[in-house]
Amino acid sequence: MTDGARPGPTLHFIVPGPLEQRTGGYLYDARRVHGLRARGWAVTLHNLGGRFPAGDDEARASLEAALASIGDGERVVIDGLAMSCLPKSLQPHADRLKLIGLVHHPLADETGLSAAELKHFEESERAALSSCDGVLVTSGYTARRLQDFGVSEERVRAIPPGTEPAPPASGPPGGTPPLFLCVATVTQRKGHDVMVEALHRIRDLDWTCVCAGSLDRDDAWVAGVRATVSELGLEDRIDFVGEHDAPSLEEWYRTASAFVLASHYEGYGMALAEALARGLPIVSTTGGAIPFTVPADAGMLVEPGDVEALADALRRMLEPAVRDGLAAAALSHGRALPDWDASVDAFGAAILELT
């Protein structure tokens, strides 16, 4: 700090597990931590142990220890994955700390929940949010959704992720088939099973598909999806390449013909914005905030879980004229997306306003 310079704001940032995990939520959080530090904020990172969103004993003890270590009056941002399942751990600190929840999407909107799990998460999240001075979300859609959890409009700030500028995708090498790219962790919510079934319905056409994303979040689900690929005889056409760092992922974006994401729900959809930035036409769903992230002239959106409609959209996307028209619109919209600098600035301003 230079002579006479005033210290920046202080902030504690609580996340479940390592910050370096390559999912949209963790990438969003990491950009906030690093960006605020670059702007002079004193950000203390707390990485929690335990299982989330299960909220086991280790998770509870880890969160309670982190909160107890923070001095009175401090600002604290807590990722919703850690916060929403442990409301009783927040309540003793609600009056002495300035608690800000960071909700990527409500836990109750996760795919595949039983009726009992849904009820539990709705009640748990409502209780956790009631302890917060304010809430940060990644989209206007999620901001409106939180009204169902008793969060008033004035307590919420929607700060969408930033998007790095990128060169337009050039497509696969000449003489090779069109390439569908899916960038998503392989979990039930992301709808890989629906995408595989839809691709099977257009197996008469020439295409390949690369699925980039973590394969270790739900072993049973991943095994089931891969078994379906094998049963349908698509092993030589659909490739699960696992989690990739930014440079290698960039190569997949560069050589793709179109982007596909069959998610049942997204709180924003960072991979969709990345596809727009590269001028990739999109086939996705109307789940959650996706229609607010993907403009109507840049892609084709179908109801979540509708295999036939998704197959029809994928079939149309293989028509060069259709694909080229959507790609031009995607590139135009992609160039208008906010960058990370603007997003981090808005994030910091929102924290100060809410506290």
Explain the overall architecture.
This protein has 355 residues and is of the alpha/beta class. It is built from 14 helices and 12 strands. Strand 5, helix 6 and strand 6 (156-158) form a beta-alpha-beta unit. The longest helix has 16 residues, at 115-130. It is globular and about 65 Å long.
Beta-strand portion reads 15-25%
Number of strands: 12
Compute the number of helices: 14
Shape: globular
Helix content: 40-55%
Distance between the termini: 25 Å
Secondary structure layout:
Layout: E1 10-16, H1 24-38, E2 42-48, H2 57-68, E3 75-79, H3 80-83, H4 87-90, E4 98-103, H5 115-130, E5 134-137, H6 140-145, E6 156-158, E7 179-183, H7 192-201, E8 208-212, H8 219-231, E9 238-242, H9 246-255, E10 258-260, H10 270-277, E11 282-285, H11 290-293, E12 299-302, H12 307-317, H13 320-335, H14 340-354
Parallel strand pairs: 1-2, 1-3, 3-4, 4-5, 5-6, 7-8, 7-10, 8-9, 10-11, 11-12
Helix pairs in contact: 1-14, 7-8, 7-12, 10-13
Using brief descriptors, characterize the structure shown.
355 residues, six-stranded parallel sheet, 12 strands, 41% helix, globular
Concise structural overview:
By secondary structure, the protein is of the alpha/beta class.
